[in-house]
């Protein structure tokens, strides 16, 4: 008989394809990023992130209920404070916007991951403390330690440092352990690139640096060996979950990391990825199934966890939301 083997046999109908499909999207493995802005009185759609609304301190409770109801389990929180200053003091204030929001999500039985960085809180928009025009690594670590403890005290389930300072995971691990939070895991933004895909996030978080760029701390998009060194370091320093960010232009990095390391691997489908896909879909240039294809591709590349602005609409079964 020719052809001897017929791969088309397993493609004959939807049930067969579903039975033998290699990669499945599960809501259990998606994380929804959420912005909470202390300056707002009404939730506001982010112009560069269509269908994503920045929440207010008053709206978070209802939003958390909604996410729980549709089946989103985990959120990644970003706060935008009313007052920014040179040391980002609202990032570790007991009554800071994140500290006050965590409860609403916890009360609604969601798992809360808190992004730990200073760029939303500093008046200069950089991810740490400045010394002249430079971000001062070791001084910044002292602040990251304080922020970690503050977030843990407020009830965060997982601390996710995203500032790309050297030694940040070790410093945060030590501070958490020293304050009775030895059971709080760290999800480390290990290989975070200085990407052009963060623009919509910076609109929402009002965190565009007032001068320069982030290339002295975030990674050069050309590098993959360096990404493996960054991840290795984070694991040595105590990272429980490692991350590659962005996802779409970095699928090779995701695959390599998933092959080499035996830690849960998260990928972050950043704001620019969401923007490109949602706008192409909304304009009718590509079909809506691109969203499933995109999310599937990240898991196929080797991610265990996917942080994506599509989490909410995927949970809603993509009914009418897009
Ligand atoms: C803060 C942070 C950023 C993102 C996540 N955490 C912005 C940046 O580094 O400028 C980007 C996420 C996105 O674009 O969706 N350090
Ligand atoms: Zn930052």
TrEMBL record:
SUPFAM superfamilies, per the entry: Aldolase
InterPro entries reported for this sequence: ALAD, ALAD_AS, Aldolase_TIM
Residues holding Mg(2+): 230
Catalytic activity: 2 5-aminolevulinate = porphobilinogen + 2 H2O + H(+)
UniProt entry tagged with the keyword Zinc: yes
Pathways per UniProt: Porphyrin-containing compound metabolism; protoporphyrin-IX biosynthesis; coproporphyrinogen-III from 5-aminolevulinate: step 1/4
First-level EC class: lyase
GO MF, any single term: zinc ion binding
Name of one Pfam family that matches: ALAD
GO cellular component, as recorded: cytosol
Residues involved in Zn(2+) binding: 117, 119, 127
Domain of life: Archaea
Keywords: Heme biosynthesis, Lyase, Magnesium, Metal-binding, Porphyrin biosynthesis, Zinc
Quaternary state and interactors: Homooctamer.
Family listed: Belongs to the ALAD family.
Name assigned to this protein: Delta-aminolevulinic acid dehydratase
Species assigned in the record: Cuniculiplasma divulgatum
């Amino acid at each position: 008989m020719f052809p001897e083997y017929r791969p088309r046999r397993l493609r004959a109908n939807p049930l067969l394809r579903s039975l033998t499909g290699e990669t499945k999207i599960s809501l259990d493995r998606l994380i929804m990023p959420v912005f909470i802005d202390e300056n707002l009185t009404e939730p506001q759609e982010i112009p560069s992130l269509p269908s994503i609304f920045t929440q207010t301190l008053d709206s978070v409770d209802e939003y958390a209920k909604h996410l729980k109801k549709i089946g989103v389990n985990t959120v990644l929180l970003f706060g935008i404070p009313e007052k920014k200053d040179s040391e980002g003091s609202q990032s570790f204030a007991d009554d800071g916007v994140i500290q006050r929001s965590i409860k609403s999500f916890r009360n609604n039985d969601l798992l809360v991951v808190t992004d730990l960085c200073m760029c939303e809180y500093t008046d200069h928009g950089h991810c740490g403390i400045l010394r002249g025009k430079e971000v001062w690594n070791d001084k910044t670590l002292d602040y990251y330690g304080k922020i970690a403890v503050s977030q843990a005290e407020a009830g965060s389930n997982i601390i996710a440092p995203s500032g790309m300072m050297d030694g940040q995971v070790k410093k945060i691990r030590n501070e958490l352990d020293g304050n009775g939070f030895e059971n709080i895991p760290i999800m480390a933004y290990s290989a975070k690139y200085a990407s052009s895909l963060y623009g919509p996030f910076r609109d929402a978080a009002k965190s565009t640096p007032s001068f320069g760029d982030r290339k002295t701390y975030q990674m050069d998009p050309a590098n993959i060996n360096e990404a493996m060194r960054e991840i290795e370091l984070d694991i040595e320093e105590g990272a429980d979950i490692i991350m590659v960010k962005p996802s779409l232009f970095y699928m090779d990095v995701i695959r390599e990391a998933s092959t080499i390391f035996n830690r849960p691997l998260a990928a972050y489908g950043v704001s620019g990825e969401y923007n490109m896909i949602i706008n192409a879909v909304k304009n009718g240039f590509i079909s809506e199934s691109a969203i499933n294809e995109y999310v599937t591709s990240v898991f196929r590349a080797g991610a265990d966890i996917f942080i994506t602005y599509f989490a909410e609409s995927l949970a809603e079964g993509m009914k009418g939301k897009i």
